[in-house]
Amino acid sequence: MGTLELRDVVKHYAGGAETVKAVDGVSLTVAGGEFIALYGPSGSGKTTLLMLAAALASPDSGSILFDGRDIGEFSERDGARYRRVDVGFVFQTFHLLAHTSALDNATIKLTGDGCTLREARRRALPWLERVGLAERVEQTPETLSMGERQRVAIARALANEPRLLLADEPTGNLDSRRSREVIALMRDICHERAIPGVLVTHDSDATRFVDRVYTLRDGHLADGMDPQLAASSL
Amino acid sequence: MTPLLSFVNVSKRYPDGGRELLVLDRVSLEIEAGCSIGVYGARGSGKSTLLRLAAGIALPDSGAVCFAGRDTTRMTAGERSRLLRGAIAFMSAEDWRANPGESVVDHVATSLGSEGLTMREARRRALRVLDEVGVGASGAQAPVASLSLTSRTRVMLARALARAPRLLVLDEPASMPNLGDRDRFYTLLRSAARERNIALLVASEEMAALQGVGVLMSIADGELCSTEEPGTLLQLPSRRRAAREQSG
Amino acid sequence: MNPRIAGVRLSMLFHLYRVRLRSHAVQELLAGSGIAVGVALVLGVLVANTSLTSSAGDLVHQVVGSARLQLAARSPAGFDRRLARMSEHLPGVRVAAAVLRENVAVVGPRGRESLQLLGVTLEVAKLGGIGRRNFGPGGFSFSEGLILPASVAAATGAEPGQRVTVLARGEAHAVTVSAVVSSTTFGALASSPVAITPLPVAQRLTGLQGRVTQVLVQPQRGSQARVAGELRTLAAGRLDVEPAENELRLLAQAAKPNDQSSSLFASISVMVGFLLALNAMLLTVPERRRFVADLRMQGYDWRQVLVLLGFQAVVLGLVASAAGVLLGDLLSHAFFHHIPAYLITAFPIGTQEVLPFRTILLALGCGVLASVMASLSPIADLRPSRTTDAAFRDRAGATEILARRTVLGLSIAGAALIALITVLVLAEASLTIVGGVALALTTLCAIPSLFAAVGRVLRWTGERVRSSALIVVASELRVVTTRSVALAGVAALAVYGSVAIGGARVDLLRGLDSNFNEYLRTADIWVTTGGNDLTTNAFTARGASAAIARAPGIASVRTYQGGFLDVGPRRLWIIARPAGDSSLIPSSQLLHGSLPAATRLLRGGGWVGISDGFAAEHHLRVGDSFSLPTPTGQARFGVAAITTNLGWSPGALIMNAVDYRRHWHTGDPSALEVDLEANVTPAAGRRAVERAIGYRPGLRVQSFRERQAQYAADSRQGLHALSEIAGMLLIAAALAVASALSAAIWQRRARLAALKIQGYDTAQLWRAVLLESAIVLGVGCAIGATAGVYGHALASRWLRLTTGFPAPFALGLGEVFLTFALLAIIALAVLSLPGLAAARAPARAAFQE
C-alpha cells in the first residue's frame, strides 16, 4: 500500500517576538505496514509534523509525499478530501459530538463524504466491534469512560478505511493499561491492512509497542531505532 | 508532634462514563512541617487527585484529611478558602491562566487581594518574591503572554510563595522541554522551601522531578506505597483495579 | 478612601475589572450593548408615553396659572364678554380672566401652521403662569401684534416685526408678529402650536367681537364650592363650569388608546431588552467561571467572589444602561416627536420632550438588574458539591441543558397561560393589554418544545438525506439548551411585537380608511378652512353657497356643520349633516340599529347617532333618549344608531344640521358640500368652485379624492411612530441575535477545527454553521409569528371593543412573512462573516485547548 515520505521538511511559526523552528529539516519514510513513533518532549515539533502529514499545513520547504502525491501542494478542498478518504486521525482531545451515539460519531467521516446515515452506520459498525465496543454502540459520550471514548475516536478514524493512520498523543487521557491496549490495536491494524502509521507521543512507555522510534528534539530527528534502545537513551 | 498534613484512610471515586473509578483506595500519609514528599506515578494513577485533596480543593469520599490538626472535611467552604489564602499553596502547570495584557507583577499581586491588600502593597510583596525566584524588575513588568515556559513556571512559583504558605502542593510543575531548565527549577524550589521552612508535596511522572525529596512514594491503582530510603523505587503493586472492576 | 468589602479592597476590585476589560473587551462590549439596546427601547417608549400628556400639562398649567375654575363655551362661537365681567364681580372671586380660543392657521413666508389662537387680557397676569412673568411690568409690551412660540416661528419663517396672515373662520387678516418666544422664558409654551394676542385683536381676527370662549376664575381661599355654584347659576345651563384644568382630563381620555398601546409596547421592549442583556452575558460564562476558579485557587472565598461578580455586574450595568439612556433619548427625538395629528386638532399640544427623572431611574434599574442576574451563573460553581477548580476541569464548556421534564412543564404552562388569557380577554376586553404581555411570555414557554420537536425532525431527516452539514447540526441541536432558547426568544419577542402591533395597525388603518371614505363620499367637492381638522372649524359663508350653486357644472351645494362638544370626560366630535347628504351614517361603522330606519330618523330631526363608548358610559341603547348639553341649554335627543368612534377616540355624534343650527344658534358652515353634474371632472369642478367663491385665502377647495388622501395621510402619520418602533425592535433583535450566534460559534472553533481534521472542508462547515443559525432563528420567528397573529387578533378586538375604533381584523400573512424574512436576512447577513471565519478555523485550534 502507500508510503509516507518526508523529504527535508521545514516548518516555521511566528510566535511572539521570535520565529519558532517547529520542524527543521526532517526526512523520514514510513512504509506500508509500518507503525512508527515520533517521540520527544512537548514543543519538539511532533504535532507540527503530524499536521503536515495530514495536509493541515504546508511545509515552508521540502516536500511530503503520500503514495507519490505531493500533499504540500493540495488546495483546501483537496486537503479536506485527502483527510476524508485517505487519512485516519486519532488525537488526544478527540472532540466527539455530544449527545450523539458512538455509532453515529463513528460515521462522521463517511457522512461527510456523501453517504446516507444508514449506509455509514453499516460501514462503521464493524470497526466499533473491532475496538471492542459492540455492546455500547448506542451510548453517548457522556456515558462512556475515557478509554471507551478514545476507542470510539479510533473507530471513527478507521471507519473510512484509511490508507494512513496518524495518532497525536492518543493515550494522553488514559492510564497505562488502556494506553497499551490502544497502541497495540493501532499497530495491529497497520499490520493487517499494510498501511503506514505514525504515533506521536511523549510517553516513553507507549514507544515499546511500535516498530520503530524516531526521537525529535527542537525540530531535529535522531535516527530511527529500536524502541528498547530509544527508551534507554533518555 | 502533630504532622502538618495527614491523610487517614482516604478514598475517592470518580464517575467515568456510566461507572465509577476508585482513584484512591484507603490512602494514608503524613507530612511534617518543613519536610518534602515526592509522589511518583504514571498518568491516571491518582496523583493529581491526591494533591487536590491535600490542598482542600476537592473533598474525599471517605477518610479524613487533616491540616495542622484540623480536619478539612469538616471545615466550611470559607475556612478551606482561607487555607488556600495563606497556609496552603497549590501549583499546577496545567492550570496556568493569565489575562493577556497583564504584567507579571500584577498577575502575582492580584492573588494577594483576598487578604485585603491594596494593589500597591500587593505589588511590593510581589516584586520581592519575584526577585527571589530570579525574575528581576524588568521581567516583572513584562506581559504574561510573552513568558516562555520556563519563566512561566517561575512566576507560578512566585505566586505560590507570595502568600507565605506552610505547605506547597505541586502537580507536575515543570514541564519544560529543556532538562537543564527543569533541574534549575527544582533546585530553586527546594532552596526556597528550605529557607522558608515550607513543606513540599510534589507529584510527577518523571523521576528527575523528585530528586532530593525527603520521602519518596509511588502511587498506582489508587494505592500509595512509601519507601524507606529516598531514591529507591518500589516495584509497582499488581493490578488489582481490573479485578475490582470486573467484579462490580 | 479604600474600604474593604468582604475583605477585598475597593481598589483591588477596580483593578481586577480593569484587567478583565483589557482581556475580554469584546465580550464585555457585546454584553453591554445588549443591555444598552434594551434600556434604550424601554426609555424611548416610556418617554413617548409621558411626553404627550406632561407637555400638555405644562402648557395648561402655564395658561391657567392659579385659576381653579373655568366657565367654558360649548361652541366655538363663544359667549358674550359681559358674562365674563359679571363673573368678575361675583362674591368670592379673586380673579376672573377672559380668554378667547379659536383654531386658526398662520401663514408666513416659509409655510403655514395650524394652531390655536389665545386672546388674553392683562387679567391673565394676575393668575401667575405666563401672565405674571411675561406680560406684567418688565415683560413683553402687549402691542397689537401676535406673540409666536419659537416652534411656530421656525415652521412658518416668521420673524418679529414681520407681517403674517392669520386665517380664521375662512377670513384672512394680516397681523404683525410682535415677538417670538423661546423655551427659556416660556417653557412648554414655546413648543406648542399656539399664538398669543390681546383679546380685542383676537376678537377682530375671528370676527367674534364682544365674545369670549373661556373665563378662568381664581376663587378666594375656601370659596371654591360657592363660586362654582354661582358660576353655574350664571351659566344658566348654556355654558360648562369645570375645573380649570379640565383640558387635561379630556386629553387623557383622548390619548388613552395611544397610552395603552405604548404600555404594551414598553413591556415587550423590557422583555426583549432583558433577554438581549441576558443572552450577551451568557456568552461570557465559561471564561468567567475559569476566572472565578483561578481566584478561588488563590484563596478568595465565596463572599469575596460574590462581591467581585456583583461589582463587575453593577459597573457594567450602570455604564451600559447610561449609554442606553442616551441612545433612548436619541430614539425618542428621532421617532417619537410626532404627536398624532388627530389629537392636535382638538388639543394644542406641543412636541417638547419631557424626560422625568423617575423614568431614567427605572430604565437604569432595569439594565443593572439584567446585568446582575445574567452574571450570577458562575455562582453555581460555589456550591459545596463542586470542587474549587471545577471550571478548569469542565473543558467542554457547560451549556445548560433543559431536561425533558422542564421542556414539558414549560409547554404545559404556556398552554395554560394561553387558555387563561383567552378566558380573561373574552370576559373583560379591557384586560387585553395584560393579555398581550402575558402572550409574549407564552412564546418563551413554547420555544423549548419546538426545539425538541425540531431536533427529532433533524435526526429523522439526517438518516435519510445525504447532508454532512445536517449531521453536525443535528447533533448540536439534539438537546435543548438555555442559550439557544434565549437566542430564539429574542427573535420570537421581536417578531411577536412587530406582527401584533403591525397587524393591528393595518387593521386600524383599513378601518379608518373605509370610515373616512364613507364620511367624505357624500360630496364631490369640499370647501373647508383647510388644515388637518375634522371639519370642525366654522367660517363665514358670505354668500359663497349661492355663488357656487350658480356656477356651471354644479348640481347642488349643502351646508355641513361640525365641532367639538365636551360632555363629561369626553371631547365629542359633532357631525351635523345636511339632510340632503346621500348617507348620514357610514354603513361600515354601524354597530347597532338599522341603517334605513336610522337614516330616516336623522333626516327627520331630533334623533342622533352616537358612538359605542359614549353609549356604554351612559347606558344608552338604540331607541333610548338622553339629554345633551348645548350652547342653548340641555337638548333631548333619541338614539337612532350606535356606531364606532368614527376614528376619534372619545367618540362622535351624528345629527341633523337643522338640529345643530337650532341648538348651536349658528348657520355658519364648517364645510360646503358640493355635488357636480354627471359629466364634470373633479378638477374642472374644483376650478369652477374656486372661481365662484373668489379670492378667499382662508378657504380651501378640495375634491373628494384630495380630501380623502389628506385624511389617509393624517391617519398614517399618527400611527407611524408605532410601526417605526416595531421596525427598530426587529432590527435591534436581528443584530443582537446575529452577534450572539457569532460569538457562540466562535467559541466552538476548536470543535469545528476537529471536524476539519476528519475531512470536512470549509464550505461544509460554513453551511453547517448557517443551517444551525437559521434553525435557531426559525424556531424563534415561527413561535413569535404564531403568537403575533393571536396578539394581532386580540389587539384589533381591543381597539374595536374598548376604544371603539374601527379595526376589522384581517389576517395579514404577507406582513408576517415579511417580518420573518427581514429578521432572518439581517441576522444571517451579519452572521455569515464571523461564521465563515469560524469555519475557516485553522486545524491548530483543535489541538490547543
By DSSP (H or I, 4+ residues per run), the number of helices of chain B equals 8
Task: Tell me the major beta sheet of chain C.
Answer: 10 strands, mixed
Uncertain segments of chain B are 229-248
* Structural class by helix and strand composition of chain C: alpha+beta
Comma- or semicolon-separated keywords:
heterotrimer; B: Rossmann fold; six-stranded mixed β-sheet; four-stranded antiparallel β-sheet; 34% helix; globular; disordered C terminus; C: 849 residues; alpha+beta; ten-stranded mixed β-sheet
Give a quick summary of the entry.
The complex is a heterotrimer of chains A (234), B (248) and C (849). Chain A has 234 residues and is an alpha/beta fold. Chain A contains 8 helices and 10 strands.
How are the secondary structure elements laid out?
The complex is a heterotrimer of chains A (234), B (248) and C (849).
Chain A: E1 4-15, E2 18-30, E3 35-39, H1 46-53, E4 61-66, E5 69-70, H2 76-85, E6 87-91, H3 102-106, H4 108-112, H5 117-130, H6 146-158, E7 164-168, H7 176-193, E8 197-201, E9 212-217, E10 220-221, H8 227-232
Parallel strand pairs in A: 3-8, 3-9, 6-7, 7-8
Antiparallel strand pairs in A: 1-2, 1-4, 4-5, 9-10
Chain B: E1 5-16, E2 19-31, E3 36-40, H1 47-54, E4 62-67, E5 70-71, H2 77-87, E6 88-92, H3 104-110, H4 119-132, H5 137-141, H6 149-162, E7 167-171, H7 179-196, E8 199-204, E9 215-220, E10 223-226, H8 241-247
Parallel strand pairs in B: 3-8, 3-9, 6-7, 7-8
Antiparallel strand pairs in B: 1-2, 1-4, 4-5, 9-10
Helix pairs in contact in B: 3-4, 3-6, 4-6, 6-7
Chain C: E1 4-5, E2 8-9, H1 10-23, H2 25-64, E3 69-72, E4 79-80, H3 81-88, E5 93-107, E6 112-120, H4 130-135, E7 146-149, H5 150-156, E8 163-168, E9 171-181, H6 183-186, E10 194-198, H7 199-206, E11 211-212, E12 214-219, H8 224-235, E13 240-243, H9 246-283, H10 285-297, H11 302-335, H12 341-344, H13 357-374, H14 390-393, H15 404-427, H16 432-464, H17 468-476, H18 482-520, E14 525-528, H19 544-550, E15 554-567, E16 570-577, E17 590-592, H20 595-604, E18 607-611, H21 612-617, E19 625-630, E20 633-643, E21 652-656, H22 657-664, E22 671-676, H23 682-693, E23 700-703, H24 704-747, H25 749-757, H26 762-803, H27 813-839, H28 844-847
Parallel strand pairs in C: 6-10, 7-9, 16-21, 18-20
Antiparallel strand pairs in C: 1-2, 3-12, 3-13, 4-11, 5-6, 5-8, 5-12, 8-9, 14-22, 14-23, 15-16, 15-22, 17-20, 18-21, 19-20
Helix pairs in contact in C: 2-9, 2-11, 2-13, 2-24, 9-13, 9-16, 9-18, 9-24, 11-13, 15-16, 16-17, 16-18, 16-26, 17-26, 18-24, 18-26, 18-27, 19-23, 24-27, 26-27
